[in-house]
């Protein structure tokens, strides 16, 4: 008779793959038990033939009785295993359904979280995510004694685009500009859409104002590349000029509110002076 190795059947919560593996093991055990039942049935049939033929030892009849009892138990075990396997199959089906539902809910939750923290038009971080990263960046800057900068960027005369060509053209321009701003952002920095035609930057670990000048000029050049727009019956090439205000931690403030206020005012100075960018002083 073959030795049955059941392994660890149904020990605690399992994944679908694990349950499927257990089901496979249980099916193999069932096959072995059925094979054993068939072997016992064959042996018992042989013993019965010997009894019918006579001239057998006195213990054969007793052995046959015990063997038939074992056969009955093995058959019962086979039927019980078959029932267990049926339940396991149903469990696997249910787990697959639950896993699919969990995956759907997880995806929806991730999408909802992403939507709550990103601008739907440009895909950039929104003000909520910007504020969170700015607070984190300030904590890191204070702890490590390094400089941090905030840039406030506004697109000059953007309202004229919406008024002249329509908001769909304005939206396309914003999407193009947002893509360019993202391309000019380092991995450790953050650019977000503040609202309308305004954008915000966080620049970490700035060494000097000259570093900021280089970044600001790079952003201006990227924004000023003509935006080729083709929508409805409109085909135009628009050149957009940005105005950038810059504030620096800790020189211009040690809180997010102070840094944003200084950068906002510097941006309006840059717009008035038509210089492209401006520091707090």
Short recap of the structure:
The strands form 2 sheets. A 5-stranded mixed sheet has the order 2-3-1-6-7, with helices on both faces. The chain contains 7 helices and 7 strands.
Structural description of this entry:
- It is a single chain.
- This protein is an alpha+beta fold and 281 residues long.
- The chain has two domains: 16-117; 127-278, Alpha-Beta Plaits, CATH 3.30.70.
- 62% of the residues lie in helices and 15% in strands.
- The protein is built from seven helices and seven strands; from the N terminus they run αααβααββαβββαβ.
- Strands 2-3-1-6-7 form a five-stranded mixed β-sheet, sandwiched between helices.
- Strand 2 (190-195) and strand 3 (198-204) form a beta hairpin.
- Helix 1 (16-53) runs antiparallel to helix 2 (58-117).
- The longest helix is centred in the first third of the chain and has 60 residues, at 58-117.
